[in-house]
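Cross-check.
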Amino acid sequence: MQLLMSPLYREGYYGEQYCNATSDIFGCWNYTQAGTTAVIPCPAIPGMNPNEFAYKKCTENGTWWRNPNTSKEKSDYSYCWKDIHTFIEDTNSGHEHVYIFVSGYSISVAMLLLSLFIFCRFSQLRCDRITIHKNLFTSYVLTGFSWILYMLLVATNGVVIQNNHIWCRMIHVFAQYCVVCNFSWMFCEGLYLHTIMVRTFGSTKHVLIACYFIGWCWPFVLVAIYTGIRGSADDIQRSSCWIGESSLQWIMYVPIIISMVANFVFLCNIVRLLITKLRQVPEATQTKKAARATLILIPLLGLQFLLVPLRPEIGSDMETAYHYISALVVSLQGAFVSTMYCFCNSEVISVLKRKWYQHKVMFSGKRSRTSSTIAATTYTFVDHVSTVQTSIT
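Predicted model, tokenized:
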């Protein structure tokens, strides 16, 4: 093995030719002697059998075999793909965490829609800050809806994944766009909050315009680039409804990570500013308020997602627990945010109480007027009868 990895050896110093080490979407291929075939285990992804092997041919002239139709290097993963019956059986079972996702997203979507109705129904709640909230909530609704569709129609349906219909790939692209929009609006929440904390008396209209571009337009650009590149890639990249993870997704992941890091910086500076403004109050109260503000801002800015990429090793005892915990955290994020920033919001509660009080007053007034009308009618009737009786007498 040491001789194989030696530069002198692989460059033909000893009179032998070798294909250079390379990689593709599914695996890495070591230096391979000319005229032989490299072998690696199949990857453990949906639709493939990790107990089988993939092959890559090194030609006699020391170059990897290329597909004559595309002139691109081609690896043979044909033995990796499961037969349709085994694939469907495996795909349709063992998805308990998927149903947790679906249930959690359904709860979140219902609560978010109710929150959006409240925000849009009452004019007292119309301001730039609530506008940012409404866009964030809308991105949560779209994300939940898209993933519910993808999981129920694609991820748990082996026939659809095997057939690789164009509509299932379109759902995948739509779900990716919604996810990027969701993280973009989390960044907009942090940007707006940081702006009003730093510039207390400045105008925020320009920030709101920038948020519209960052929240809805910028994700479209990223997802369009990702879709174009993956759609024109090799057959492996375009297979299985794009359900497998791809290195091309880093086109979207890198900006998301940058936005989360920026939100963390915003949070640290916001907490610093809060502590500065609370220095006049006792230390215990100051610490309590700062800690409460930090805990409330973490879900709004999506900072808990920084822990989601820390996955345990595949096959470990913690892997199953990780899937269940991440399913709960991700799917119920919208429900938690709507609870904290709508149902537990003092402004919203005050508006709802005032509306309920007005409704009660109007209802009571209507009942009072109705009773008065009935009473007046009865009195007139009695008086008329008395008058008639007096006249007769």
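The longest helix spans residues 346-392. The longest strand covers residues 37-41. Passed to J.P. for a second look.
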